[in-house]
Amino acid sequence: MGDVTSSMPVMVASENGRRGMLAAMALLREGGSALDAVELACRIVEDDPDDHSVGYSGLPNVLGEVELDASIMEGTTLRAGAVAAIQGYGRAITLARRVMEETPHVLVVARGAERLAAELGETPQEQRTEEALRRWRARFTERELTPGDAEPLRSVARALTRPINLQDKLHKAGRVDTLGTVNFIARDRRGALASAVSTSGLGWKYPGRVGDSPLIGAGNYCDDRYGAAACTGMGELAIRVATARSLVLYLKFGMSLAAAGREALRDLLTLDAPDGQYMNIVALTSAGEVAGFTTVPGKQYLYQRAEMDEPALADRLMVV
Ligand code: ASP
Q1: Which end of the chain is more exposed for a tag (fewer CB within 10 A), N or C?
Q2: Rounded distance, CA 49 to CA 152, Å?
Q3: pTM summary value
Q4: Pairing of strands 80-86, 10-14
Q5: Residue of minimum CA distance from atom 5 in ligand 1
Q6: Hey, which of 212, 221, 295, 301 would you mutate to test ligand 1's pocket, going by the most ligand atoms within 8 Å of its Cβ?
Q7: What is the pLDDT of residues 176-209, one digit of tens each?
Q8: Ligand 1 centroid distance, CA of 275 (Å)
Q9: What dihedral do alpha carbons 211, 216, 217, 222 form, nearest 10°?
């Protein structure tokens, strides 16, 4: 865990957030807000054609359509915004912020979110890059299925989203994973916190499936008084035990960050989750401590303090 440096900008992110964090930290150093920083950081990952877990090049659902989920939360006011199952727009995090700032709602989904994006003049974006589609087809082949088979869609989605056991040699040989999301949490010079999560969700999911990422309390939670937490991993687990809010609540009750993260993951270890389903959390306290937690071996997270030139990788604390 990182040490505490009060009232200096600090950020924490999932492993895939390096480029976003670099740009966002520059903004924070210039006095930018935590909210602007996490939005900017997410947008950079959303725009990256090589990240197949977030944004326009994310992995499609079982029908081959890309459906994005995102949420953003401001720790000073507890205001939040989110979109889910949105098609045709790549910058889900900006839409989530606009839901927070320009509608009376917290979460707007699918057709409504697309309508809102058009109304707000957001630019539609072609989704499904060639590489994302290649990966999408490859998993059908791996599981000896064909897109458009006569089988009920729910059976196909179940077969294709089944997690790959991390010990599976085939996985190590480069099989396509179904998961991936980006998390960012920032504290700005004023000590304000904000958190953002963006994802294409579980690849090959049933159309309309929504994970934890756009659900405030499950995949994202932020409160200046205590800290913030954001999740990656199998959303179905975090939704059932409200993982992000739980960690922050444990901080509120006086636990250390290490104890709060451990407890938040222990809550979901009792669930009847299929083998191979995992959960990760990144967290930042109001005092500026950072940490990452996971239920599986070998996972890391990124953090950067204002005085650091580059984000640094650190091991997540494993909870079993
Ligand atoms: N948590 C995301 C979801 O369930 C996926 C991920 O983090 O990989 O949609």
Answers
A1: C
A2: 32
A3: 0.93
A4: unpaired
A5: 201
A6: 212
A7: 567 779 999 999 999 999 999 999 999 899 999 9
A8: 16
A9: 130
